[in-house]
Amino acid sequence: MNSSDFDRHLRLELCWLDNFPTAASHAGQRQCRHCRRKWSYSVLRRQWLLAEEFCKGSTRRAAAVRANTDEHTAGRQYKRFQERLAVHFLEMVRKPDGGFKIDPLHVAEACKTAMKISEKQKRFRLLVDVCLGELTIENRLETIYRTVFHDHVQTLIRNAHQARIKRRLELL
Ligand SMILES: [Zn+2]
Q1: In angstroms, rounded to a whole number, what is the distance separating the alpha carbons of residues 161 and 20?
Q2: How far does the centroid of ligand 1 lie from the alpha carbon of residue 67, in Å?
Q3: Distance 18 CA to ligand 1 centre (A)
Q4: How far is the CA of 14 from the centre of ligand 1 (A)?
Q5: What's the confidence (pLDDT) of residue 76?
Q6: What is the pLDDT of residue 96?
Q7: Is 86 buried (19+), middle (13-18) or exposed (0-12) by CB count in 10 A?
Q8: What confidence score (pLDDT) does residue 97 get?
Q9: Ligand 1 mean position, distance from CA 2 (Å)
Q10: 93 alpha carbon to ligand 1 midpoint, in Å?
Q11: Which end of the chain is more exposed for a tag (fewer CB within 10 A), N or C?
Q12: How far does the chain reach from its first CA to its final CA, in angstroms?
């Protein structure tokens, strides 16, 4: 799954397991028409809207309005994105994966400057701003998807698979 598949699943509320559409179930949940698995999309969708705004360089306030949440929540997510991305970009300096078009030297330069800043949050912000500035919006979204959301989605899918296998075994 990549960022556009992820975005599509959230927008159309598709089942993470088999990509089938879901229908409204109880307590704000959605149920897959095919495998009957239930999913909630609202938390992830809000986080993804905030991530999109983050990638566009929107303020916390503007992001909060778009994601229909409060500024405090938007700020908490922005901080989380910054931390994850800072770690990701620092890793790239040591081990450039070649997946994205950031000049490792440019990142290394940004790291060196960032390390001189004593306050952690400011350091992360500078590093992330410089690195994101090197990327197109599409690549920013792909990067934030990979660093912040991908593992979570894989865990959702794995847990659903395991639950399905367990149910089958119980029926034997
Ligand atoms: Zn399904």
Answers
A1: 15
A2: 26
A3: 5
A4: 8
A5: 97
A6: 59
A7: buried
A8: 60
A9: 19
A10: 40
A11: C
A12: 32
CA of 104 to the centre of ligand 1 (A): 41
Residue 66 CA to ligand 1 center (angstroms) comes to 29
Compute, in angstroms, the gap from residue 103 CA to the centroid of ligand 1.
Answer: 41
Q: What's the confidence (pLDDT) of residue 46? A: 97
What's the rounded Cα separation, in Å, for the pair 38 and 106? Answer: 45
Query: How many angstroms is it from 42 CA to the middle of ligand 1?
Result: 18
Mark residue 70 as left, alpha or beta (left: phi above 0; alpha: psi -120 to 50; beta: remaining): beta
CB 117 within 8 A of CB 123: yes
Q: Mean pLDDT, 10 residues at a time, over the chain (172 residues)?
A: 96 96 93 94 97 97 97 96 91 65 72 81 86 90 96 95 90 81
Burial class (CB within 10 angstroms; exposed 0-12, middle 13-18, buried 19+) of 164:
middle
Domain that holds residue 135: 3-171
Considering its fold, how many domains does the chain have in total? 1
Instruction: Report residue 124 as tokens.
Output: 């992360």
Q: Considering the entire predicted model, what is its pTM?
A: 0.88
